[in-house]
Amino acid sequence: MFQLVPHGFYYDFLKRRHLWANVSWAAAAISILLFFVKGPNYSIDFTGGTEVEVTFDQPTDVEDVRRALKPAGVGDDAIQEIGDGATSRFLFRMQGQSSAKVEDVQAAEAVLNQAFPDLTITPDEQVGTRLLVTWPAPADGTVSPRTADDFTRITAGLPGVSVQPSPEDNTVYLRLPGLAEQIRGALESSLKDHGLHIERTDSVGPKVGGSLRTAALISLGITMLLLLLLVSLRFDFTFAPGAILCLFHDSAILVGIWVFTEQEFGLSMISAMLTLLGYSINDTIIVYDRIRENMGKYRSTDFSQLINDSINQTLSRTIVTSGATMLSMVPFLFYGGPVLKQFAIAMICGIVVGTYSSIYVAAPLTIILRENRDYLGKLFGMKAPA
To answer: Which CATH number fits domain 17-43+206-379: 3.10.310.10, 3.30.420.40, 1.10.150.20, 1.20.1640.10?
Structure first.
């Protein structure tokens, strides 16, 4: 029968544990420094903005696309030709931009004020621009006879403007075309014979982007706290700190890789990190369970030797689990599209880092804590385990 790890195979993982531990924490420190000094390349999920992917049936030069989009205010650096030259596929990415043009907002306000001078108009920057239009109620307290159809009629000459009724009295919403609609209109106008197809449109307002970024950081914090609680309840302080620090180590390394390679830091990255936190702690707990089991069987064995034995005993399971998970990510790299491809890359990097940290971060910390259990027990007022 084929065995992934040959019978009798044994490797001294802890022989150079001090070297690898120092390398690990140096890499984690550099990653944290990169995060604060260089900063992550936030995607439009977190900053707000517009991303549009288009294709043309006819061969289209990037210079033609740039000329067509100049009236929409799209800079040359925001236009990227993707794929091979035969596909005529382009990606437009404008970070922090999703609103309507200022002149379009002013034109809409002018038309509204000319028709109804008593209006109160409040712009609301979301995806595109939405105008909150209100007017005073009649003196007798009844609802004004004005309707959404009245506003549709007076704004008929404004391109791309739509009127949305409001559940509140004396209120309507006007939706102005955002940057994505402006891009489409400019391309259809200038390159109408090229067979334009809008493949994908993502638009996030700046307020929504800030809220998503805050929610993502909160979710990461809550996940770590819950995992810390799980480990604290399952293990004593000889083991728990190693598992806890593994979480911070793995998160820091993964973020450092993303910052260093200038990959987009968005919702797919957060999803991968949340998944990997659970994966990493599970892998560490498997090793810890075997160590604790062997501690009961071989009380006279040197603790470092016992940990090495435990890692070797779980090595086959670790390789199979990590390898199977990584293989499941491979199709996403080639057929998953931009979002799933980024998720797959983060997962593969995280699996490698998480598996490594279970051996070269958690295990050395466990030995250090075991050797200093009496001192730590007095320091924290806890009874040290035998």
So the answer is: 1.20.1640.10
